[in-house]
């Protein structure tokens, strides 16, 4: 059997590496139109950082795992074609700011149709709007020259989380395979299930109809993001009342119906998926006339924007309502720890908010490269993007510095903002950092990961989301 995967990104690369590791008799080829990315996959410095990924790639690469730009050859030869291309939010035209842009998906489908001389199972790995399989089926059928070629489309959404992708792929809570309710559809489901059964217990391989599988992925992300926005909403109320969000979260998390995960107050969710998938869900709801349902889910995104804005206002308010000309060290730019991914990271909006008020941000992140940070902070935002201040690009980059050393980043700074929960931030010598900073020295813990009592002992003025406010903190006017 030969598997091809179109799209060598955060999903395609790690997923196929795991398939190759666990199924040594299957040849797996990951193809991409991006030559740089393929070159990096074939080098010692992979294009994405994910704990444990390099070891697996090293073991399988050249054995039964290959990375190539020859899309036509490998897709043409494959029995199963995974499609793991990007499905970003549309930036213009009808549905801009909401709907999924399926340009790359359709391009991949046309490619598959044009090179296929044998029947294939086409697997949706990308997150797509419900009913995409129907549209893709039509593109495949009408563009394939050979009438004997049959395409069976399966939905097999990916639930991995960046930062823990390899663990998630090795021991997934479940694998979901959706297919048509026909004999050939069920046969295709069995074929794909056989691949996963190499390492995943059968009871964790769930099957469903196509539309349920497509919708389950959007729903899973909406529920996960909703939990973050829910606890963040409560964090604002905690600050106003003197309650402590960690204590509230612990108390509710011990209820087995609620559970303890995803209850940490933070500066907000980021990443390429949560916002995009919720907006897409809302667009689908609106398209079928379910405005109230769309409004309900949209509130999850609004609360996330509110939290980022609230954090910026707290920082500025605490520092006597002015950050003009003040150096602020920013610890963490990736949207979460153990990844170099910055797509939709809250750090972009927080830094822009601070810089708009005149601050000079000195950014340190263990994985994110300086070029990426400059690109993110100078990228024009779209009209539909929130919060509004993100649109102002003037004087942005001249007030940004990127440091490869956390001590240098804090040297001469008035404040440290922790925006990513990297473990190493917990273990810095904050007493030594305090000595190098302008007094009063502030720490704004946007991830609630530091030892706040110890920091106060050193002399820091500490603000942490959802915690009782330090009496020193000034409310912004
Ligand atoms: N990143 C995640 O954590 C995650 C998790 C679950 C699901 N998803 C979903 O998986 C999909 C892929 O996400 P990603 O983060 O891997 O995206 P990505 O942008 O990292 O990778 C997509 C790749 O597809 C390539 N591509 C696009 N069109 C192509 C074509 N016609 N032929 C060949 N290559 C093509 C691009 O060059 C790019 O390298 C998205 O739909 C996303 O929503 C992502």
UniProtKB/TrEMBL annotation:
GO molecular function: NAD binding; UDP-glucose 6-dehydrogenase activity
Cellular component terms (Gene Ontology): nucleus
Catalytic reaction equation(s): UDP-alpha-D-glucose + 2 NAD(+) + H2O = UDP-alpha-D-glucuronate + 2 NADH + 3 H(+)
Coiled-coil boundaries: none
Keyword Oxidoreductase: yes
Active site positions: 273 (nucleophile)
Domain UDP-glucose/GDP-mannose dehydrogenase C-terminal, first and last residues per copy: 329-452
Pathway info: Nucleotide-sugar biosynthesis; UDP-alpha-D-glucuronate biosynthesis; UDP-alpha-D-glucuronate from UDP-alpha-D-glucose: step 1/1
Any Pfam family hit: UDPG_MGDP_dh_C
EC code: 1.1.1.22
Similarity-based family: Belongs to the UDP-glucose/GDP-mannose dehydrogenase family.
NCBIfam families on file: NDP-sugDHase
Protein name from the UniProt record: UDP-glucose 6-dehydrogenase
Originating species: Chlamydomonas reinhardtii
Lineage: Eukaryota, Viridiplantae, Chlorophyta, core chlorophytes, Chlorophyceae
Gene symbol of the encoding locus: EZY12
């Amino acid at each position: 059997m030969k598997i091809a995967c179109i799209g060598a990104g955060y999903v395609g690369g790690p997923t196929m590496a795991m398939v190759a590791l666990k199924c040594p008799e299957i040849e797996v080829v990951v193809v991409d139109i991006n030559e740089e990315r393929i070159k990096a996959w074939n080098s010692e410095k992979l294009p994405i950082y994910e704990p444990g990924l390099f070891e697996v790639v090293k073991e399988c690469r050249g054995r039964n795992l290959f990375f190539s730009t020859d899309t036509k050859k490998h897709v043409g030869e494959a029995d199963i074609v995974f499609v793991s291309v990007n499905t970003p939010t549309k930036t213009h035209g009808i549905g801009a700011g909401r709907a999924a842009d399926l340009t790359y998906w359709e391009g991949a489908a046309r490619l598959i149709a044009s090179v296929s001389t044998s029947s294939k199972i086409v697997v949706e790995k990308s997150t797509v709007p419900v009913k995409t399989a129907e549209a893709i089926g039509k593109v495949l059928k009408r563009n394939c020259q050979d009438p004997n070629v049959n395409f069976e489309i399966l939905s097999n959404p990916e639930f991995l989380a960046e930062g823990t992708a390899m663990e998630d792929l090795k021991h997934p809570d479940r694998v979901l395979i959706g297919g048509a309710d026909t004999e050939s559809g069920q046969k295709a489901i069995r074929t794909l299930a056989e691949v996963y059964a190499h390492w995943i217990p059968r009871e964790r391989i769930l099957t469903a109809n196509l539309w349920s599988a497509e919708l389950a992925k959007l729903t899973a992300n909406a529920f996960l993001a909703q939990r973050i926005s829910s606890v963040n909403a409560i964090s604002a109320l905690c600050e106003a009342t003197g309650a402590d969000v960690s204590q509230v979260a612990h108390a509710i998390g011990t209820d087995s119906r609620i559970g303890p995960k995803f209850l940490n107050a933070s500066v907000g969710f980021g990443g390429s998926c949560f916002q995009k998938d919720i907006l897409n869900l809302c667009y689908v709801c609106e398209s079928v006339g379910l405005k109230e349902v769309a409004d309900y889910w949209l509130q999850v995104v609004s609360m996330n924007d509110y939290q980022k804005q609230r954090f910026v206002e707290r920082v500025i308010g605490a520092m006597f309502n002015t950050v003009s000309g003040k150096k602020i060290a920013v610890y963490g730019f990736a949207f979460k720890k153990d990844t170099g991914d910055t797509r939709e990271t809250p750090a972009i909006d927080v830094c822009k908010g601070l810089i708009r008020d005149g601050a000079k941000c000195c950014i340190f992140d263990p994985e994110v490269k300086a070029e990426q940070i400059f690109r993110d902070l100078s990228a024009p935002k779209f009209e539909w993007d929130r919060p509004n201040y993100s649109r102002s690009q003037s004087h942005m980059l001249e007030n940004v510095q990127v440091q490869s050393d956390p001590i240098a980043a804090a040297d001469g700074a008035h404040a440290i903002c922790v925006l990513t929960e990297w473990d190493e931030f917990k273990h810095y010598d904050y007493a030594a950092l305090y000595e190098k900073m302008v007094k009063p020295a502030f720490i704004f813990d946007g991830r609630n990961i530091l030892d706040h009592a110890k920091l106060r002992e050193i002399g820091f003025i500490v603000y942490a989301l959802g915690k009782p406010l330090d009496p020193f903190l000034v409310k912004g006017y």
